[in-house]
Amino acid sequence: MHTQTIFELSQEAERLLQLSLHNLQALKKMPAATFDETNLVGKVDNANVLPLHFSARGVEAQQATLHNELRKITRLEMVLAIVGTMKAGKSTTINAIVGTEVLPNRNRPMTALPTLIRHTPGQKEPILHFSHVGPIDALAQQLQIRLFNYDRAKLAQQLEIDKDMAALLDRIAQGDAFDKHYLGAQPIFQCLKSLNDLVRLSKALDVDFPFSAYATIEHIPVIEVEFVHLAGLDNQLGQLTLLDTPGPNEAGQPHLQKMLNDQLARASAVLAVMDYTQLKSISDEEVRRAISAVGRSVPLYALVNKFDQKDRNSDDEDQVRALISGTLMKGNINPTQIFPVSSMWGYLANRARHELKHRGHLPDPQEQRWVQDFAEAALGRRWRTADLDDIEHIHHAAELLWEDSLFEKPIRKLLHAAHANASLYALRSASHKLLNYTQSAREYLDFRYQGLTVAYEKLEQNITRLEEDMTLLRTSQASVSDEIEHEVEEALAAAEIFIHGQQFEIVEAIDAWFHDGQMMETLGDGKADLRLDDRYNPGQLVLENEGQAQIALSKIRSACETILLAAQERISRELVLRFDELENTLTRSLNDAMRPIETRIKEELNHAGFRARISFPAFQSSALSFNTRSLFTNVIAPENTPTGQTSRSGSMRETVSRWLNSPGWGGDDDVDTSTRYVIDIAALHEKLIGHVAHFCEQIRKALAAQVDVSVTAGMATFFAEFSLSLAGLQESLRSSLAIRQQNESSVQMLRQHLQQCIRTANWIHEDARLLRDDIQTLFAAEQP
Question: How far apart, in whole angstroms, are the C-alpha atoms of residue 544 and residue 540?
Answer without folding.
Answer: 13
